[in-house]
Amino acid sequence: MGGEDRQRLDRWLFFARVTKSRTLAAKLIEAGGVRLNREKCRQPAQQIRVGDVLTVSLERRVMVLRVLSPGARRGPAVEARTLYEDLAAPTAQPSGPAVEAPRREPGSGRPEKKDRRALDRLRESDSD
Predict the structure, then answer these.
(1) Assigned domain for 25 exists
(2) CA-to-CA separations, 10 to 16, 35, 46, 69, 120, in angstroms, rounded
(3) Rounded to whole angstroms, how far apart are CA atoms 85 and 52?
(4) What is the 8-class DSSP label of residue 110?
(5) b/e per residue, 68-98, with b = 16+ CB within 10 A?
């Protein structure tokens, strides 16, 4: 195997747009947020190759990715998606709002200033 089919893990995470910078990728790896073929990685210089499976634990989700190719640059998102295959189960997207907002009949809400004054006049006339 030649040197071009391997790549540093922090660099690949940056090229695949998993992290915003190589520094953040290195911090994520050192913190234990990345597994390579089910084993924890602690070194950003860990070499990965095509076919490796990465489990990346991010703040709000966990990504399971199979490396399809090493990256040559940090290109657009469309290009970055060609570097990996997402193995995580697709999450169910809600089709609509989870809770429907309550509806009121027109005029059944809070009274306006004019209505409140009319109510006050009515109450004053009842108390006399």
Answers:
(1) yes
(2) 10, 12, 8, 14, 71
(3) 11
(4) S
(5) eebbeeeeeeeebeebbeeeeeeeeeeeeee
Residue 9 lies in a domain: yes
Tell me the sheet residues that pair with 7: 48
Question: In 2-127, where does DSSP find H-type helix?
Answer: 9-15, 22-30, 77-80, 113-127
Domain of residue 23 covers 3-86
pLDDT, tens only, 8-47: 999 999 999 999 999 999 999 999 999 999 999 999 999 9
Say what the alpha-carbon torsion angle 53, 68, 18, 43 is, to the nearest 10 degrees: 50
**Whole-structure pTM over 0.70, yes or no?**
no
> Domain total for the chain?
1
Location of structure tokens 């090229």: 15
